[in-house]
Q: What sequence folds into this?
């Protein structure tokens, strides 16, 4: 991934991130749906109030959000080079984006409610009959919002990484794609990513 817009699009399409922070007791990680706000160059989301990750983050140490794409084991048997020379080894192909920046907590009901509405609209938008926070009884979302805190990763630096057999010749890449296409859903997704990157 070379272009910033391609990396940002990857983040938009990804599932939840693994959010890693340094807290008083060491590294802490949670799986969190995050939205990339391109205007403010930040990631926004929320954590359960009961989750200790937001409470004692070490000041001045960046948070890291890891957005994983498809990945799979690559067998040397996929490569025509195996039959030709035998000089092949197994590897792992993947796509990932690392987003790092300043971790900020928003313990503010209005901020959290707006975020929950935004997250819901994003994830419900493609459903035939989308659910809305407005579908709930009066006061319900406000009561639920008390159980979470908003989080933000500011001044985000995005770094995209992909290993899609770029170091192999065309025949080995074609063999890898063919081998992956007969595998699991994740392997087929990786094959599609490899095909798209050519």
A:
């Amino acid at each position: 991934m070379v272009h910033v817009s391609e990396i940002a699009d990857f983040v938009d399409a990804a599932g939840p991130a693994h959010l890693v922070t340094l807290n008083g007791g060491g590294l802490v990680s949670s799986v969190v749906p995050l939205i990339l706000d391109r205007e403010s160059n930040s990631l926004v989301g929320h954590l359960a109030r009961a989750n200790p990750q937001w409470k004692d983050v070490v000041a001045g140490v960046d948070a890291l959000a890891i957005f994983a794409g498809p990945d799979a084991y690559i067998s040397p048997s996929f490569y025509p080079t195996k039959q030709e020379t035998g000089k092949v080894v197994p590897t792992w192909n993947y796509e990932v984006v690392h987003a790092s920046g300043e971790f900020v907590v928003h313990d503010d009901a209005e901020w959290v409610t707006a975020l929950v509405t935004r997250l819901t609209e994003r994830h419900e938008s493609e459903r035939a009959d989308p659910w809305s926070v407005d579908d709930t009884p009066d006061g319900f979302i406000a009561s639920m919002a008390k159980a979470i805190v908003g989080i933000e990763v500011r001044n985000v630096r995005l770094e995209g990484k992909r290993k899609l057999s770029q170091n192999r010749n065309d025949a080995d890449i074609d063999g890898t794609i063919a081998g992956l296409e007969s595998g699991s859903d994740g392997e087929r997704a990786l094959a599609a990513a490899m095909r798209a990157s050519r």
